[in-house]
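Hey, I'm writing a tutorial for new members on how sequence and structure tokens pair up, and I'd like a real worked example in the thread rather than a made-up one. If someone can provide the structure for the chain below, I'll link this post from the tutorial.
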Amino acid sequence: MPLPATLARFNRVVTNRLLRPLAAHLPYMAVVEHRGRRSGRLYRTPVNVFVDGDRYRFALTYGTDVDWLRNVRAAGGCTVITRGRAVPVTDPRLGHDPHAAWAPPPVRWVLTTIGAHHYLDCTAAAAVIT
């Protein structure tokens, strides 16, 4: 089972506000810019990201029932800010791997321990915004 919803709420209110400025520059971290499905409001959510060429894979540590994921899937993409660069990504696809074989070993251990078996794959769009 992924991390509990109560922790997600706490992180949204407290931790995300502190982490957001750093996440765009830290390894394995990013900020996902996405628009609300109903409100159209721009949101910025810190996430774990793993880049392989033009593929961006996000660890879904809170499972698949989170607002940012629904927004990205509904819009067909988002902008990922990582390592100081803003990269538009498209074609969001959910994946499932109970062994997190795609993740680096320490991350793999954490993901399997907390039961975070899902991930989101996206592909970088042709243009990169800096």
